[in-house]
Design a protein that fits this description.
The structure holds two protein chains of two kinds. Chain A contains nine helices and no strands. Chain A is mainly α. The longest helix of chain B is centred in the C-terminal third of the chain and has 28 residues. Classes of the chains: A mainly alpha, B mainly alpha.
Amino acid sequence: MHEPAGLADDREVRVAMPRPAPRPGRTRRNLPADVWRDRILQVARVLFAEEGFDGPGMEEIAKLAGLSRARLYKLFPTRRDVFNAVIAEDAQRLGGELLLALAQERTTRDKVRAMVRVFFTYVENRHERNRVFYATSSGADAALGESLRVVRTALAESFAQHLSQSPERPAGLSTAEVRLIANGVIALAEGAAASWLSGPHIDRDRSVDIVTDTALRALQPAG
Amino acid sequence: VTASLPTAPDAPSPSDLELSGAVPAAILDAARALFIEGGYEAMSIAAVADAAGLSRQVVYRRFPHPRALLECLVDRDVEDLVDRLRLAAPVGRDVNSLVGASVAVFVDFVLDHRREYLLLFGRAGRAEPEVAAILGDLRTRLADLYIAIFGPAILAAGVPWPSPAQARLVAYAVMALCEGVVLAWLEDPVTVAVSREGVIDLLQAMVVRALVS
């Protein structure tokens, strides 16, 4: 109860005795570029989430991040670059979770289920929190898809390695074929999650079960 | 005064072309060539008009935006794919032969449209919002088509019929599986060792097990 009042007082005092705001960037000019990068992306993430891709201008981003426009443009030549960097961060986080899920589980069944769950949870959270941000027109999905390319390769490698060592590995498959299978299963999990909310609604846990079972059936050794 | 103005002698009037149906084909062929060469960005209305030897006005009238052009291109390809599927997978066959035929059609379709396919579904398709939106619509249409083709055969194989929502989710999952395998086959240097027949056999086995085991 005390704190809000304190904040209000503080604001009133500031209004009563305005001080000139420090010129953007002046006091922090010597911060390293990656610290600026983090600040910019932190601010931009909130602005894009609130206003969509067409919302914040570079000027607004610069002002809230506390740096000059010149410096902002030096780090990110266009607004699309800021946007894509925010998305790339998301992809990195998602990729980290996927690789962790894959590494933590032991059996094929558990690995597939964990991977499917991460994809669906991601789609669900992002749908609830960032509806504007991820509206189709913003191109967030497209930018995310591109950023996920690196993640997909790493995932496919890890999963193919597991499959080729697992006792369920079908006899007579080459390394290349196992790799194709691994890519197919990852695409299956991602593709099903991506289209999940565009179709008639099935709740998340049920969807995870359906997709996991479909993937595991596809993975069964022939015969 | 207007009547005395000379008309441009170099091109047939737009309405003649539109009536003859020549406009869409010429425009689409030019657009396809530009798309294959430089991706969606290269497919501006002005560039398409120049390449087709038509005035920009004529192209704008038919296609107010490059997105409409790309939709039309994708439509033409999808019609091609659907025709091939209908021929290869007539109603009444069992799941295994239906899946085998459909997978072969899909793989050959991708090989015939290799560069376009990679642009659409690969790097450019994922990076370009307009292309991604068109792909979203395309997948919805294909999911419905596959459910119509495979549904009766799956039912005949004794698998209980799922709810429409569940059928759609499985259709999306299986489509993504096929796309993922074919894309990896085309893009990943490790997997080029697998032959066309090898990819078809592998996908057929996976899809059949996913659908009816």
